[in-house]
Amino acid sequence: MEDTGPPPDGPPADDTDAFDLCDECGRVVAAAELLGALVPDSSALHPTDSDLDGKRVLTACSVDHLAVLVEHYRQRPFVPEEQWAGKVCRALADCDQPVPLSVVARLSGLSEHQAEQGVEWHNARAREWQARYGGPAGADGDENEGD
């Protein structure tokens, strides 16, 4: 079944409230009462507009919660390589085959140096994760344990 029309009881009235969640406590807040801030965050990637990469929109139910959130991001370092890694991953999401670095750079809007640094940053995090949690069978070198 394909649903392409409005709900059976009709579209919502124009005065319907929009809601969002407080990023600090998760409380549901009417959009008219919501507080917001835009903060730098190297892990934030906009799904469609790369000019908005590195900027995170925070929403909060109160001034106190907004202050807590802003302080959290103020203390978090902005790591350019993290942002470049995200841009590379986004650019390669639909690629099934290896892609030359020059093409990766062009697709991601980065210089080749930035794309390379992003790939290296990403791979280093993957190695850290694998060292901490292990990988596929045999990847951590003890595939014969217990024999």
Would you kindly provide a brief summary of this structure?
This protein is α+β, with helices and mostly antiparallel strands and 147 residues long. The protein contains 4 helices and 4 strands; from the N terminus they run E-E-E-E-H-H-H-H. Helix 2 (80-92) crosses helix 3 (101-108).
How would you portray this structure in words?
The structure is a single chain. The protein has 147 residues and is α+β, with helices and mostly antiparallel strands. The chain is 38% helix and 12% strand. It has four helices and four strands. It has a two-stranded antiparallel sheet. Strands 3-4 form a two-stranded antiparallel ribbon.
